[in-house]
Design brief:
This is DUF1330 domain-containing protein. This protein is an alpha+beta fold. A four-stranded antiparallel sheet has the order 2-3-1-4. Helix 1 packs antiparallel against helix 4. The longest helix is centred in the N-terminal third of the chain and has 12 residues. The chain starts with a strand and ends with a strand.
């Protein structure tokens, strides 16, 4: 069963470029897990808006779990923590 996610990411102050660079690296792993980045957008972060918004399609919970635990992703945890202040993930229905 396909899972669609809306991912909201907030950068630490001054780390907007680092957030984008980190996301470039981990989103490149999607193909190996059958995941699809449907849309990626950025804001200026004004008024508490997330820095980056992603719409993602994942073929199954198992594929999502495999992506989340992929060692190539998890070894970047320090880079992520330095750049990303907050992440909200919502399961959504695309209309």
């Amino acid at each position: 069963m396909t899972i669609n996610l809306c991912v909201l990411l907030w950068a630490h102050p001054g780390a907007e470029a680092a957030l984008a660079a980190y996301e470039d690296k981990v989103l490149a792993l999607f193909d190996d897990h059958g995941c699809t980045l449907l849309q990626r957008a950025r804001t200026d972060g004004a008024d508490g808006a997330p820095t980056e918004i992603q719409l993602i399609s994942v073929p199954s919970q198992a594929a999502l779990d495999a992506y989340m635990t992929d060692p190539r992703r998890t070894t970047l945890a320090a880079e992520r923590d330095a750049a990303v202040a907050r992440t909200d993930i919502h399961r959504v229905t695309l209309v």
